[in-house]
Fold:
Amino acid sequence: MNAPTLLVTGAAGFIGSHTVIELLTAGFQVVGVDNFSNSDAKAVDRIQALKTEVLDLRGVNFKFYKADVRDAKALEEIFKTHVVHGVIHFAGLKAVGESFEHPLAYWENNVGGTMSLLKVMQEQNVKNLVFSSSATVYGIPESLPIKEEASTHAFSPYGQTKLVCEHLLEDFAKANKDWNISLLRYFNPVGAHESGLIGELPNGVPNNLMPYVTQVAAGWRDQLSIFGSDYDTPDGTCIRDFIHVVDLASGHVAAVQAMLSNLETHPLNAPKFSINGLNIFNFGTGYGVSVKELVETFESVTGQKLKHAFVERRQGDVPAVFADARKAKEFLGWEAKKGVDQMCSDAWKWQLNLKQTEVKA
Ligand code: NAD
Ligand code: UD1
Structure:
């Protein structure tokens, strides 16, 4: 009996690389695709090294192709070479600020890439898809914690592309009832694999909090600016639902296990959870942590003093965002387990493994 094969787009990226490792660990065969627009071949080497040398996962394969998901011919070739049972679609552009400057690139890549992939999947008769969405689709939340049924609203071209892809997949699922599609809305993924061998390496100056924190601690950047100290929150700084990237990755395994539960080739003989059709899940921890708390936790678990200053609010930031995470637990049997201390220590371990020459700007 062969284990099912999953095609992972954006496999060399932050969340993709961690998910590849968790899928292989769970017994899936994995085919990765990435065009390296926000990653490079070293990420693939790191995944292979972690798989084989550290985790000793020799019974499962990770085959990688450098390709763009908008290139339907290249995708077709990959689908013809491998018997693919399902796809996890991470590939896309994700910088909110940049999306205001280059909306066309965002629509073309995120919406065009999803359409191209969907067409090839349909032609090749592959009917299981996990799509990376974002908590950004909730806009300014009406109430907390945020439930999946909350209203949606996009504030940026990036957010628009995620919302439009969700709508496209909803329409598609209505017309194709034999498909299984999971829309996963991630909150704030941070941290790194506990080995410190894979992690997040944004191009240029990081926009997101955790990579900025680790780069300041490593002396790559002068100091952290904490955007806003006068929010209506207990300590005046914003509150977010930070989730360890390995927890997030294991949530993808739970989602595909449940979606593929009827396959004869399933590596688990009797998966406990089964989902069909289109499903939307929040992927968060269910609790909020303030920016100040995260900085203090980082300092205490790493022993690094973090030079920081409180500055003006960043335009577009929402005071508090955190998930109602109960649906994923009920329908997938998955919940995040790792705390902020581990998010900080693992992110730091990864940072210590990086050489300054790896920073691209
Ligand atoms: P990432 O940039 O690290 O990974 C995305 C990968 O996709 C990169 O390796 C990039 O080279 C590749 N890629 C981009 N366009 C491609 C294309 N057309 N063809 C092939 N490969 C392409 O980002 P990530 O943090 O791993 O995010 C993965 C997904 O999750 C994205 O869709 C993102 O929008 C979504 N998401 C991320 C976050 C977050 O905070 N990281 C939050 C919510 C949602
Ligand atoms: C942002 C995006 C979201 C995206 C996510 C991951 C917006 C509105 N949301 O979330 O769509 O999915 O990134 O890419 O842009 N902070 C600082 N100093 C810094 C960096 C951040 O104080 O140098 C603060 C921010 O003000 C915020 C918190 O840290 O309160 C988290 O910021 P960030 O990591 O950028 O994520 P979000 O803004 O929550």
Observations:
- The chain has one domain: 5-358.
